[in-house]
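WARN retry 2 of 3 for item q-0093 after timeout on previous attempt; input resubmitted unchanged.
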Amino acid sequence: MTLTRRASLRLLCAAPASVACAAPPDFSQYSDAQKEDLLLRGKIDSFAEIGHGVTKPVKASLSLNGITHSAQIQVVDKELPDFFPPQGNPVPSKDSWRFNVAAYRIDRLLGLRMVAVVVARPFRGKPGAFSWWVDDVQFEEVERIKREITPPNPEDFDRQIALTRVFDELIINIDRNLANLLITNSWRVALIDHTRSFNPYPGIRNTEKLTRCSRSLLAGMQALSSASVAKAVGAHLTPAEIRGLLGRRDRIVEFFAKAAKEKGEDKVFF
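OK item q-0093 returned
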């Protein structure tokens, strides 16, 4: 974990020692709507570059009605080299803030609730994404592996990682690294940084990543439609990007159906 993220895990009282510090809000009880409201309307008190990440994200302190919280801001919006899939022709690829918003909304449409809350909001004259700075983080996955820390409930943790991999294949996230997979003190996995996702390729990129899937996520993917996705993401995905998403959904559902037939449902679904 970076010093910047570790330092953000608690709100520091700026009052003199002789003045009592009000207890900070319990952000774990905040709804998505409350978090979105703070991200959208909060006054930017300060900001600084985080210091790592190819998209040069910014960490900002926001305040609204006496409540203060941090956000990560990304305004990147550029073309990437074409994506070369395992099969088929190269497809255009982008690095864009809008995919952060789309990933959050697709996550909620599926009922996963693993992606940090994100809103679209301009920053310094540019359109951008403001992401909720995840609370109660004990470390990034890269640090957990480096320190060889075993989760207290390995099966539950492995299931969360399996869901992460399915989600990343669904949105074709080509930039999932272990520093943007956060582990909270309660051992919940939180996902951030999805700017390099959602290219129009309709196939599975990494079949080896698809090991298991929850029945609820499978049902959520099966329920996706052009209309429901378009309503959820608004202008943050193009029609071609939505078609790519639904094409990948079809291939993923087919993949797990075949795997369950070959290995047995209990080996594939949980």
